[in-house]
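Hi R.,

Here are the chain sequences for the assembly we discussed:
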Amino acid sequence: MALVSLALAVLRRDLLAAARRGSEWSNPLVFFVMVCALFPLGIGPEPQRLAELAPGILWVVALLASLLASDTVFRSDYDDATLEQMLLSHQALYPQVIAKTLAHWLLSGLPLSLLSPLLGVLLHLPAAGMLALMASLALGSAVLSFIGAIGAALTVGLRKGGLLLSLIILPLYIPVLIFGSSAVKTAVDGGPFLPQLAMLGVFFLIALALAPLAIAGALRISVDQ
Amino acid sequence: MAQTGLEVRQLYSERDDRVLFAELCFTLSAGDVLQIAGPNGSGKTSLLRILAGLSSRYQGDILWHNHSLEQQRADYLQQLLYIGHGAGIKAALSPLENLRWSCALRGLPADDNPIRSALAKVGLRGFEEQACYSLSAGQQRRVNLARLFCIPAQLWILDEPFTAIDQRGVAEIEQWISDFANTGGAILLTTHHRLMINRPLRIIELGER
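And here is the predicted structure of the full complex:
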């Protein structure tokens, strides 16, 4: 019970702070929309070709947007030293870290997946793929948020951790990308996409159980200097 | 006789191949006020971070109630209130929202009354709902210091608590330190300022060699 109220307090504070700042959560979203809007201009407006590429484009751009957003998970907390308060709480870091990652997903992954049908229409994605696109993005971006938070925790103490962060987390993003875009493709072809979603669900549960441990450990190392 | 709270034995730390301090020994009991002094770069902040459990770059023993810090970590953290020289607050949030979060981290019940009275005590009555970025540097510092009054603790570790605080505020903080020591708290602080408190004050000089 105490852990739940702790997590809720952290969640409320993060959402409130993000709502007041704005740019932090809107930047990846704007990136997602802009890049997806550029593809029809770049490869031509033929609906058939776009429809064929759409699942891959949407997923790759969503993944890059998530990568862009991941650096911000702990950055401001590190800069204003509120991260020290988190580490000095006698209560477990586990619920705090889950709450922070959840807040990050609510501000990056969830809007991304809610916005994706709109961009799907722009890229002529067949209607049969829309549900799979939203579901796979919602589930997959939660996994991406956890993986990104590990990288962010490892590099938050470095002044220029941007490139290192990408190198650490991109390889871990790849399985999510494979199963996510495959779910959309299968749905477009009229096949069952539940197996791929189930795999994403497995990734999510593994990330939910193990990533907070890695994140908490990485944060302690980053602050220890 | 008051029981020994914190005991440091043969503490050694170095940074970039430079020895910050070696063979450092002291004890801190209930009611003690200990000032760490020394020039810039002499390792004051490093020492406080080590004692707060944020840094592991040391050799030697740190004991809390006669047990090593590793064994007593949860108990120690529950009794410790560390105020570093960072901001310690989110600029986008109001003082009230910042302190609600700080109190939740310490497992305190969600209740605004102690927070409001703590903010009133540090002179921020009327600023509770204002975003912190619109407050002055000294007021932001006071928001951080308000944690002293809404979070119960036995040991305060304060890193330069007088930064950006006006003269009257300095006297107030000195009074808070005396009051806390009188009620059985232990205080460890760094400052370049000459402390005027009506309690016996011990000073450890770092960087003297």
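The interface with chain A takes residues 52-57, 73-75, 77-78, 80, 82, 84-93, 97, 100-102, 104-107, 110, 131 of chain B (CB under 8 Å). Chain B has a mean pLDDT of 89.

Let me know if anything looks off.

Best,
T.
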